[in-house]
Amino acid sequence: MITDIHYRYQLGGDIVRRSQMTREERASRSRLKPSIGYGEFVRGTLTVRRRTCGNPNCKCARGKKHVSLYITRSKNGKSEQLYIPKDKEELARRWVKGYREIQNLLEKISTTYWDRLKRKD
Ligand SMILES: [Zn+2]
What we know:
By secondary structure, the protein is of the alpha+beta class. The chain has one domain (6-118). Helix content is 37%, strand content 26%. The protein has two helices and five strands. It has helices spanning 23-37, 89-118, and strands at 8-11, 14-17, 45-51, 66-75, 78-84. The strands form two sheets. The protein has a three-stranded antiparallel β-sheet, with helices on one face. Helix 1 (23-37) runs antiparallel to helix 2. The longest helix is centred in the last third of the chain and has 30 residues, at 89-118. It is elongated.
């Protein structure tokens, strides 16, 4: 019978009892669950680029360069970039942030297991 205390967590083939986790690990996993389950996220880095368009009569030719937002990611060893139009900027920022939050939580949990491997007992 699975009770609250003996609630089991399936992870990478190992079954970990929540009651054996540290408070921090349980907290990280609780926050991770909805982020992965319902959150929207994208892996990438947002970069602002300033460029000239080539038109000698444009303001950019006199120093007021065009500002555009790009999202970049590396995939299969290649760098990929995508232009983010103004109307998608907020969305892109939110999704990138969502991914970063998941990454941070994963890193926290991973560190507890790293530390367990490091332990001498
Ligand atoms: Zn221009």
